[in-house]
Amino acid sequence: MKSEWKVTSQMIGDAKMYAAYRLRDKDKPDHSGNREYAGQYVEDREVLAAAVKALNEMEVQE
Fold it and tell me: Taking the complete model, does pTM exceed 0.85, yes or no?
C-alpha cells in the first residue's frame, strides 16, 4: 500500500530544491527504490507543499 505524498529536499548546486514523493510500499523502509515522485524539483517549498496537499486530497476522493 502506498503512503501519502510528502516533501523531500535535496541540495542541487547551491540551491535547496524540493520534490513531492511517496513510498510505493509504506510497510517497507524509505529508500530510493521504494519512492515514487510527482513532477520535478522546485525551489519554492511553499508552492510544493500546496501541491502535495492537493495530491493527497485527490487520493482521498478516488
Answer: yes
Which cell is 13 given?
Answer: 548546486
How far apart are the C-alpha atoms of 39 and 20, rounded to whole Å?
7
Does the pLDDT value for residue 60 go beyond 90?
no
Contact 27, 1 (CB under 8 A): yes
Burial zone of 62 (CB within 10 Å; 0-12 exposed, 13-18 middle, 19+ buried): exposed
Task: In whole angstroms, give the CA distance from residue 40 to residue 9.
Answer: 12
Burial class of residue 25, CB neighbours in 10 A (0-12, 13-18, 19+): exposed
Helix ranges (H only) for the chain are 45-61
